Structures
1.
Amino acid sequence: MPVPTRVLLADDHALVRRGVRLILDAEPDLAVVAEAGDGAEAVALSRTTDVDLAVLDIAMPRMTGLQAARELSRRRPGLRILILTMYDNEQYFFEALKAGACGYVLKSVADRDLVEACRAAVRDEPFIYPGVERALVRTYLDRLHRGDGLPERTITDREEEILKLVAEGHTSKEIGELLFISAKTVERHRANLLQKLGMRDRLDLTRYAIRAGLIEP
């Protein structure tokens, strides 16, 4: 018998992890060998556990699935990554690909699509569920017709990390310790965020972070 693909599963909801694990462990060629409650824990587990595939939720505490995907892509170039999300969102899809993911699966159809997405990832093939393929092609063609390009990100990866932690209520000192930068550097990034986004305070940043899917309401 071939060795099953070893899966690292990251989602901050234990019930979701349990459901996804049941789906994957029911297949002879897939085995969940590690579970994480957030992106930072997933990155840490990837250092100590031998895994072939990471399945990451987008909206998680401390570090989102997209942030974790970027970090895992840097640290483990051979690791396959899938994004599992409730967000049927074109911007997230492009960000997932940019972060190193090879597939994008909606939680609402995970029981139908996730196993095939995992197998496609192992074959080094991209996976997008059929509905989003049609929508993405249509939107892309509309953009070309109007002479528009693909959507640009408003903020940098580092600013996104700081925005998320600010919205979760961390102080500048705590954020600096988590990201290994000074509190003064955190404050400078925070000021840049307020200016870029045209916002006034932490409450505005928190609302933006919720809309962007960085944290859950």
Note: The longest helix spans residues 130-146.
2.
Amino acid sequence: MALPTTPHSPGRLVVVQPLKRKRCAGCLRGPLSLLVLEEGAPRCLDCADLGHLVFLPRGDTALTRRSREESTLSAVVVRFNRRRSRYERQGVLVEEAALARAEARCLADAEARRRRRARDARRRAGEDERFAAAFTAEILRLFPGCPAERARAIAAHASVRGSGRVGRSAAGRALTEGAVISAVVAAVRHVDTAYDQLLMAGVPRFEARRRITPAVESVLRGWQGAGEDAG
């Protein structure tokens, strides 16, 4: 296995994780877990004046980038992949204090992101609560005989964020009469009729809907008529 012949390039030092047992050409220590090539000869990190650096494995891109930004001296660590016949990056060597500063920056960012997610979650919860209340009010306007608790349940179900239900459609968000009625009809169909049992018995969907239409219309008339009676 040939070691890199040009381990140094402008602005970058390269350190090798050798696959074979190597000794330092300077102090003769070995076997070396990490080495630097100087004029083709392996040197340990101490002899290469890199012994004070600490190893940061690859994987966290932000931490690696910031560690190198914070570190006056750094090196890329590579290892030869026999199957691919190439050297591959394993991580970096950076100053310990630089790594600590980079970790602090990343933690600060993570905390900021956590606070932002919490704020966004509270904002969305407030928006959803207000929308569900408006949806409930519209149900009760169209169907004044609908029990308030039932109207709230229908609105909550229809307006679940990300559900794809009618309450989250453009028409639903606009509280159009058609969207609100569709949500009520769907709720009545599943709760107040034998629709689900018919589907489980193998009845085709459109035939099941045809069979339960009178029951749905009866419930809706009752909820609408209660308002007329009160008037």
Note: The helical segments are 61-70, 96-142, 148-158, 170-173, 177-191, 195-200, 205-230.
3.
Amino acid sequence: MTDSNDIQKHPSKGIYLLPNILTTAGLFSGFYAVIASMNNHFESAAVAIFIAMIFDALDGRVARMTNTQSAFGAEYDSMADMVSFGIAPALVAYNWALFGLGKIGWLAAFIFTAAAALRLARFNTTVGTADSRYFTGLASPAAAAIVSGMVWLGADYELNPDTFGVIAMIITTVSGLLMVSNFKYSSFKEIKWKERVPFIAVLFMVLVFVVVATEPALVLFLIFSLYALSGPFITYKSVKEIKNKLIDEPDETATEASKAASQEQDETENNQTK
């Protein structure tokens, strides 16, 4: 018979198949986006990055649901995210419009790639200590969605990349800088998906899918752009609340101190009267 202590000392080697298949599918989608952009299939490249976002959202949730989380899976997921949301969007944007700007174009693409790497490194080192309700900096999938949505929008509406190069450079650079910013972005983890909701919520979701299906490139680009703009607003609101709290606390302290002083004065007067 095999001793149970030997099993604990020598755990079985291997990896969990299901979540890593989803991670590999996301990695493949990001790699395919680069190849498609090199062949001037920019719409397919942009769609592939959005498909990579779906697989990225699924692999972690499937791992938690099936209790198949592992350190290997977490590291593999980060490396796949770097390809799909760091390298792929930058190269797709470069092959579409940034190459015409010369050195400025590839520098803008590099800023996005480097920012994605820094964003992922910062996220991995703060897991478990940061507030789970918020992301610090724009998440790399959301930044990739803005850049790929821009390319998809340009290819869908047949915009001239030569005249759109400067705007593409600005959008790519700003998306990269938002990833390494200190702006707070909602992680939507406080939403309780398992609770019951009114029937009208289902109708609202159907309406959302219909709107996205009518003009997917435009709607997705607008949605993620608004999400990117929400970070500065949330940060400003939280800083303002902290300042108001700090202003109110001294007033309360001063009020308590004045009450204590008046009580001491009353006690002194009573003692003198006695």
Note: The longest strand covers residues 134-136.
4.
Amino acid sequence: MAEREGSPGAGRLLAGTAWLVLLLGLWLWGREVTDLRPGTSAPTTGDIAAVGRPPEVRLPPALRPLGGARPQRVDIPSMGVQAPVVARGLDGRGAIDPPPFDQPGVVGWYAAGAEPGAAGAALMVAHVDTETRPAVFYRLSAVRPGDTVRVARDDGTVAEFTVDDVQVLPRDRFDARQAYGVRKPGRAELRLITCGGTFDRADGSYTANVVVSAYLTGSGP
């Protein structure tokens, strides 16, 4: 999400509105939701656009879910991202508490949800930019199906995910089931989420969310 540095009021508003939409999906944790629509193309930040699955991409089979372990780092080679992961919960208003605004290079994991690599859909959220520079998920919408996401876990293992869908979901038509529901029963899945669309200065938030979906396809030390 975006934080406008030096503008405390804007930051508070973003915390209460830009992230509030994530609450709509919390009840889906652990549920197995199938027959979801593919992603749609839409403008995001800058000149980057998100797409759904190109028909020519061949995706690997899913790996059986791993045991539970907390994430420590997320690596996204196609973005050049290697970022620390911190556990986050809900803030005083009941919204997901994002990484601190002064740590734009940190990714937050919703610790009350699934652990990355375990069965279910694990949620990771991070800022797209600050008032002065891009943040860790600035190029999230440039990720494509077939790309790899690796999550280093505190049991010494690395869970490797393959991206199978990239969506831009407008806030005024946000579908929580589409964003957070488990795509296929029994899989270990991952969601990477940040802001997208355009920045509305009138209400201090972005108009959409970028949602990257991935599923477990490998593991190693």
Note: The two ends are 32 Å apart (CA to CA).
